[in-house]
What does this fold into?
Amino acid sequence: MSFDEQHLRRAISVQNANNARLLAIPGVRQVELGVKQTDGAPTGEAAIRVHVDRKRPAASVPAAELIPAAIDGIPVDVADPAEEARAVTIAQQVEQVPGALITDDKIADPHRVVTQRPLVGGLQLTANTAILQGEHKGSPSASGTLGLMLWDITETTDAQHHRRGFALTCQHVMDAEGQGSVGPGTDAGVPDLSTKSTCCGTDNLVGKYLVGEHPSTASDWALVQLRPGMRWRPQILEIGVIPPHTPVGLNDLMTLITNSAQVFKRGIKTGRTGGTIRALNVVNGSSRFPMRIRPNDPAPSDPLGRGDRWCFADHGDSGAAIVDGTNRVVGIVSGREGWLGEVNVNQHGSVPQDANGITRLDGFGVPIHVILGRVTNLLTAGHLPFQLAVATGIAADEFIVPDGGASIAVPSELHRIVDTAAFLGGRDPDGVLRAPVGRAWFTEDDQRAERLTTLRQAIAATGTGRQLNTFWAKHQRELLALVDDDRRVTLAWHRGGASAVFQAFIRLLSRPGNDLLAVPETINGTPVGAVVAGFAATLAERGSAGLAADIADLTLPDIAGRTLDEMLIAMEAVRG
It folds into this structure.
């Protein structure tokens, strides 16, 4: 099945010219571009589809309210809820990935438990900004889903040189539906519940907001340029590698509609769900949505009940990539019926329940060809030297590292704990082993959330752990600001060896079953105790009086040369 793109664009133009007239007819709920249907089955003919509350015999309809069979040569197809349900039933005659039940539960995505590197699509993403107005004024900005990765194709078509990576999400994810303030350079991060970081701690920062737009519901996207040295993969959690493919365009979308082909997304609220694209250029009242997706029904073994609400995507899933059955990127999620960033988009009344009291809420999305076109226009207008495309790969284990990023020589005492599979650094042209500055040195290749939770609880139960927890809760903001912004403290942290001690300790937490791992006796020849004391002295000198006083009250055991078990014993001996 193939469509003429010029004809499709003309059909959209004709629809747009007549939307207001059609929506003014009593009983009309929605107008969109889709495929004409007969007895619920698509015919393969592009048509303006007009959704009504119920069909009426033509003889009983006043002449002024009759819906024409065609407008300017474009067929018009009238549909009511019963016909839509019949079409969906035909499309779902084989087993499919189901949609999701809407709940009031907060986001409980297991992939938020620990930082995931290399970075992939499907994770939570938030901007380092606060809501500026309303009842949530002062609260951290809301989160959404990092949909997928784009890369710069300006220099070459060779994937090995596509090192500049960009995370794609929705603009309303970045600016909390206009209630937060973001601009070029605003930090963006992936929250980590293990450290209670909501956005942009040292290891959670993934990049900086570059550009985006949300002038209306018809265009809602944002780009985050990944920080130098941030390893990433052209993959999406629970979906897999995005393979090389020709960009999906308008013709492809109409073919997917005609074939009732399956599409999928992975978001942080409802996980992986499936559905079918039902229409494009959807106009509902004063709102326009480029794409509408109907969720697949639940499995027969898990039927819905009266009052249930069923969806393709929900709050928190905005920005999630939508892919077809071959993992071609189709677009990103921008909202669902009844909600778009807390705005009710059903101007013509609420979404009706079916005969069983169940409400099925379609998802909305922005097609990737629309996004890439707008990205190109804005980047060109802003004189930004990027030409972006969907990042693709072949193997599940391949990853890409953007060029640049500060690094530091790894102390010789730590060479023995560096392994090539997990180490995020490498050797420079002179053969010196170097690690990234400002983030983890190792991927958490064999961590388990349960094990980490147990370890953190064990540490928190010790005297030292109780002291450090209280100290961190009181001074976290000041400590992070000192390390990030005070050059004396930054130098003491990195060059003085404190960051190396910290990385060694984190490595012990990630591999507690390895008795061969221990904190080294020295860092660059300086005893570990002296390294820690030196950094503490710098913090006390450069920080507030309250910070200095609390540092003086800390009682820390000597951890030099000790394994994790030995450290826990020493930490328990300290009164907290």
Q: What stands out?
A: The two ends are 72 Å apart (CA to CA). The longest strand covers residues 271-284. Confidence is low (pLDDT under 50) at residues 157-161, 340-349. The CA atoms of residues 69 and 92 lie 28 Å apart.
